[in-house]
């Protein structure tokens, strides 16, 4: 006797647990850059986990169906055993018992690892074909209950998917609450790990940016210090030149005072000598009168020669003055060379400023290029999302086609069941006829038995063929659906990576904006420094102008005093010449030559003194001209630097204004594009919810 099967009711697989309800946010208008991207990662992970759970639930449902088929077969065997105990001849029941054993063996083979889908399909078909006689209605009711439970499960999954879609639209601004209400410790650990990696990458990038900013700041500061040191060295050199000029002026003034004292002493000595000479001349005037008259012509010749010598000395002095003028021109050329050198230095500073401006323009262009790349990446991501929706639609159409094929297979199964029912009825009729004719004719019974066996084998072969074809079709459809799901998972992974990259780019853009703000502050600091240098240059210019005025005033006074001295020396010379002429006319011929020689010697002495005065006057004039030239060149250089500083400050101010306006425009455009892409992402997420639910339902 077979063991009595347990009377426990069949246990249907439990439906999928409902998705956790998340609290809705009162403020759905949060920033997209801080909420939407982490939520998309979490939603994708939840969808992948939901798909795995749906697969596991489908496997459990198929196992439950196989278990219910086994229980039904056991009950059928029990009923056959009960009937066989009360019947005389149970060969038909033995055949049914044998058929049930074969079905159980096939189910055990189908439950082997690696044949889950085919075993489930075969179990379903075998259960529907093995539901004969009394247990057919019970098995049909059980299948109906399973169908109703599956429909309830489908409705629950659809409702959960709809709720998930609504929650995705509402919970876009509740990242912190979502992270706080996470029930899975593994999910929290993964999110913390991702956040830690992102923070570490962001910290590394911040350190790199800080290092670059420090290097740029150090280079800019070194360049500014070099420029400041160069300007300070130039100012020190100018101040040193002014101090040297003042020292030279004081030295020339002291030399001029010494020369004037010496000249006065010489003039006083000459006056005393002339007075003594006048006394002697007046005493001997009567004696040398005749001799002077005779030698007047000779004296006139001598005076004429002296005048010629004086003219030649004046021409030599004029030549020396011309040479001094040429030297002054050479000094002017040197001053021009120095001004050219200063212009070259200012040009070098201008090139350095232009290099800084080009670097800043390159940074702005890189910022605009990265913003464009970010926008293009977002557009590509949403284009891929649209293509993913198209692929989901195609997958839905494929699932509908598979449903149609399944319905056709179900219709064929129903037809086969009807044929089997008809065959079983005919078989029962034949068995009754065989029972009646069994005692009359054993040969007829054997023929009928052979016909029955042939019909049964033919029906079994047909059922096996239909079962194999249906199992192959279902297996192929499941493989195609699995491949589509794998592709969908790959696309979702790619979208997650793109979202992470876009988030990193957004953080980079924020960091670049902060660095540009710091550059703006440093440029404003440099502008204030340039203003201070401009004020210093103005004060130095005023000091140089005051010193130049004082030098010109002292120069005019010294020139006037020298002119007065030359005028007095000329008058003394004329007086001496008149006295010499009177003495030559009065003295005798013997003393006339000595007097003429003495007068010539005194005249030469006076001319030498005049030459010395002019020689002393020439370096003073040269030094004053050099000082005036240096002051003029310094004033021109200071004026040029002031103009360049003003131009640089104006240019810098205009560029800062343009840069701020361009940054505001770029920020507005980027915010508009991000808002548009955020709306598209929300619409895509809202559309993905029901589609994802339908895919789970079909699986």
Describe the structure.
Residues 129-156, 385-436, 471-512, 545-616 form a coiled coil. Residues 1-32 are annotated as: Disordered. Residues 21-30 have a biased composition (Low complexity). Keywords: Coiled coil. The longest helix is centred in the last third of the chain and has 145 residues, at 442-586. The protein folds into two domains: 32-205 and 368-514 and 680-698, no CATH class; 207-239 and 249-363 and 517-676, no CATH class. Mean pLDDT is 66; it is low at 1-40, 113-119 and 690-699. It has 699 residues and is an all-alpha fold. The chain is built from ten helices and no strands. The protein is rod-shaped, with a radius of gyration of 61 Å.
Quick rundown:
Residues 129-156, 385-436, 471-512, 545-616 form a coiled coil. This protein folds into 2 domains: 32-205 and 368-514 and 680-698, no CATH class; 207-239 and 249-363 and 517-676, no CATH class.
Main attributes of the structure:
699 residues; mainly alpha; rod-shaped; disordered C terminus; coiled coil
């Amino acid at each position: 006797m077979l063991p009595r099967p347990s009377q426990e009711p069949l246990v249907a697989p439990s439906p999928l647990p409902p998705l956790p309800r998340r609290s809705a946010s009162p403020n759905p208008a949060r920033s997209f850059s801080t909420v939407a991207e982490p939520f998309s990662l979490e939603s994708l992970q939840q969808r992948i986990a939901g798909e795995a759970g749906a697969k596991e639930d489908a496997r459990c449902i198929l196992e439950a169906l196989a278990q219910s088929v086994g229980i039904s077969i056991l009950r059928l065997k029990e009923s056959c055993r009960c009937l066989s105990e009360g019947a005389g001849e149970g060969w038909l029941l033995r055949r049914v018992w044998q058929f049930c054993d074969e079905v159980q063996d096939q189910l055990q083979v189908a439950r082997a690892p690696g044949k889950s889908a085919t075993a489930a399909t075969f179990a379903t078909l075998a259960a529907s074909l093995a539901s004969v006689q009394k247990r057919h209605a019970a098995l049909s009711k059980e299948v109906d209950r399973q169908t109703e439970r599956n429909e309830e499960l489908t409705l629950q999954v659809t409702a959960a998917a709809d709720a998930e879609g609504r929650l995705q639209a509402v919970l876009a601004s509740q990242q912190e609450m979502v992270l706080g209400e996470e029930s899975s410790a593994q999910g929290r650990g993964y999110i913390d790990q991702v956040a830690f990696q992102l923070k570490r990458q962001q910290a590394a990038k911040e350190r790199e940016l800080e290092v670059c900013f420090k290097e740029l700041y150090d280079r800019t500061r070194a360049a500014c210090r070099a420029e400041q040191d160069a300007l300070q060295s130039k100012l020190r050199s100018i101040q040193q030149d002014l101090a040297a000029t003042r020292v030279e002026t004081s030295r020339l003034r002291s030399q001029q005072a010494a020369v004037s004292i010496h000249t006065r002493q010489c003039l006083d000595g000459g006056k005393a000598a002339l007075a003594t000479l006048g006394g002697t001349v007046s005493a001997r005037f009567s004696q040398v009168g005749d001799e002077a008259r005779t030698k007047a012509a000779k004296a006139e010749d001598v005076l004429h020669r002296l005048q010629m010598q004086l003219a030649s000395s004046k021409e030599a002095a004029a030549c020396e003055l011309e040479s001094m003028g040429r030297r002054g021109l050479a000094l002017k050329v040197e001053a021009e060379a120095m001004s050219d050198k200063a212009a070259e230095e200012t040009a070098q500073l201008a090139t350095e400023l232009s290099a800084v401006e080009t670097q800043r323009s390159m940074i702005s262009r890189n910022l605009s290029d990265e913003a464009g790349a970010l926008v293009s990446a977002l557009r590509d991501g949403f284009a891929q999302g649209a293509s993913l929706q198209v692929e989901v639609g195609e997958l839905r159409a494929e699932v509908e086609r598979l449903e149609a094929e399944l319905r056709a297979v179900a219709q064929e199964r129903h037809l086969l069941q009807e044929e089997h029912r008809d065959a079983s009825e005919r078989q029962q009729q034949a068995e009754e006829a065989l029972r009646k004719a069994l005692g009359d004719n054993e040969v007829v019974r054997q023929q009928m038995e052979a016909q029955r066996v042939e019909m049964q084998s033919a029906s079994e072969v047909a059922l096996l063929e239909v079962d194999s074809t249906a199992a192959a079709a279902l297996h192929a459809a499941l493989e195609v659906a699995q491949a589509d799901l794998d592709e969908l998972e790959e696309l979702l992974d790619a979208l997650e990576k793109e979202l992470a990259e876009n988030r990193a780019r957004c953080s980079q853009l924020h960091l670049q904006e902060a660095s540009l703000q710091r550059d703006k502050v440093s440029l404003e600091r440099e502008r204030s420094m340039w203003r201070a240098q401009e004020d210093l240059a103005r004060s130095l210019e005023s000091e140089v102008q005051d010193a130049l005025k004082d030098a010109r005033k002292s120069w005019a006074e010294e020139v006037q005093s020298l002119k007065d001295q030359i005028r007095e020396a000329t008058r003394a010379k004329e007086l001496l010449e008149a006295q010499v002429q009177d003495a030559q006319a009065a003295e005798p011929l013997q003393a006339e030559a000595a007097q003429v020689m003495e007068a010539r010697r005194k005249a030469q002495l006076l001319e030498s003194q005049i030459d010395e005065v002019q020689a002393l006057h020439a370096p003073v004039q040269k030094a004053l001209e050099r000082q005036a030239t240096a002051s003029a060149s310094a004033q021109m250089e200071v004026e040029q630097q002031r103009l360049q500083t003003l131009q640089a400050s104006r240019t810098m101010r205009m560029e800062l204004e343009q840069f701020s306006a361009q940054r505001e425009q770029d920020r507005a455009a980027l915010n508009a594009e991000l808002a548009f892409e955020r709306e598209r992402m929300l619409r895509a997420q809202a559309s993905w919810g029901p589609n994802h639910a339908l895919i789970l339902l079909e699986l």
